[in-house]
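Supplementary Note 3. Input sequence used for the single-chain structure prediction.
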Amino acid sequence: MSSRTVIRGGLVITASDEIHADVLIEDGRIAALAATGTPAAGAFTAERVIDASGKYVIPGGVDGHTHMEMPFGGTYASDTFETGTRAAAWGGTTTIVDFAVQGVGHSLREGLDAWHAKAEGNCAIDYGFHMIVSDVNQETLKEMDLLVEEGVTSFKQFMAYPGVFYSDDGQILRAMQRAAGNGGLIMMHAENGIAIDVLVEQALARGETDPRYHGEVRKALLEAEATHRAIRLAQVAGAPLYVVHVSAAEAVAELTRARDDGLNVFGETCPQYLFLSTDNLAEPDFEGAKYVCSTPLRPREHQAVLWRGLRTNDLQVVSTDHCPFCFTGQKELGRGDFSKIPNGMPGVENRMDLLHQAVVDGHISRRRWIEIACATPARMFGLYPKKGTIAPGADADVVVYDPDAEQVISAATHHMNVDYSAYEGRRVTGRVETVLSRGEPVITEREYTGRAGHGVYTPRSTCQYLA
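The predicted structure, written as C-alpha cells, is reproduced below.
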C-alpha cells in the first residue's frame, strides 16, 4: 500500500534555497516539489493534505551530539531514548546521533551493543551512534575499522576527565592515525583535564565549593590549549578533526587559524554557550548547579565571537550536548563540592526554537539556521542527503514551523524528563507545529502522535564535509 502526503502553501527553506512550494511525500520519502499554485503542484494528490500557508516547511533537525541514559558521576542522564527522542520531536529534531561508550577494559563492540540495546524499539525518531573511545589499544584500533564499515564512522576522545574517559596524547595520536586510514572522524572534547584537576583541587582547598567555581577552574585558556594540541596532533596524523562544544573565544581563534591554513578542522557549539553565561553559574542558593556542563559556560562577551564564528563558518554546527540531570537528587550530589555536580544540561527540545530566535534577532539568516541545525550535521556525520534537506529522494523528515507563534520556555511545559529548564521564562518567537519522521506524523498540530519504536537505527557513511 502506497501512502502519500502533500504539504501545501508553505515557504520551503533549505540550506541553499527558499521557495514557496508544495511538497509531495510518498512512502516515507520526498517524491517531488513544485512551486505553489502551478499546474505541477495542482497535480499532487494524497490521502493526507497539510496546510502550511503562512508557515515554514523545513527539514527535520539533526542533533549530532546527545547523551541519552549516559552514565556520569555515579548517576545517569535522566532522559531515556524513549523520553529524549520524544522531546526531540517536540522541538523539531528528527534525527539524533548519540554516543555509545566503551568502558575501560572492554571492547568497542561491547559498548556499542549496550547502546543498541538501550535504543532499539524505544525511539520516536531515527538515530545513529558515535563511539566514545576510552581505552586505546591494538584491539580497539582494529575494531575502529570494523565499526566504520558498519556505519559508526565517528569516534570521540577526551582530553578531559582523567581516570574516566581521558586519553593521553599518544593514545589520541594512534586513534587519529587509524581514522586517517579508515575514513573515520575524530571528535574531541578539548580541555586540559590534567591541569584542570589541579585547579579543582586548589579551589576546593580554599573553600571555593559553589557551582560558579566550576566555570572558574575550567579556564578558557585550557580549552584553547587543548584545541591547539588536538589540531596539531590531527595534522601530524593526517586526519580530520571535529571539536565538540566549543565555548571560548580563544578556542574559536585556534579553529579559525587552522581552517585558514586549509586543515580539515571543524567546530561545534551549543545553544547554552550562545544564550547563557557565567551569570547563570553564579545564581544563588545552588541554582547555578543547573548550568554546570563541560566545557563550561563563559562570560557573556564570548557569545559575540561564537555568533561570528557561525556566520563565517569557522564554526559549522550547533548541537545540544543534551545530557540532562535533575536538580533534585542529581545536581544536588555536588552540594558543598562543585566537582561532584554531574556535568550536563538539557536542551534537545529547545535547539531549533532558540536558533530561530537567533534569526529573529539578526544573528543568522534563515538558510544559515537550517544549515547549522540540519544540513551540515547531516553532511558532517554521513547522513546527507537522506537527512538534513528537502529534496526528491530524501527521507520525509519535515517540520511545519510557525515563525510568528510566541512561546515561553518552561519546565512546566517541556517534554524532556528533567525537573528544570535551562531557559526558564525565556520568551521566543517561533514554534514547531507538525513534525513528520519518514512521512509519519510524530507531532500533529501540537499533539504527540508518534510512538516508541518508529525511529530506526541509521548507519552512516563517512564525513561528507571534507575539503
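The longest strand covers residues 398-408. The CA atoms of residues 21 and 35 lie 4 Å apart.
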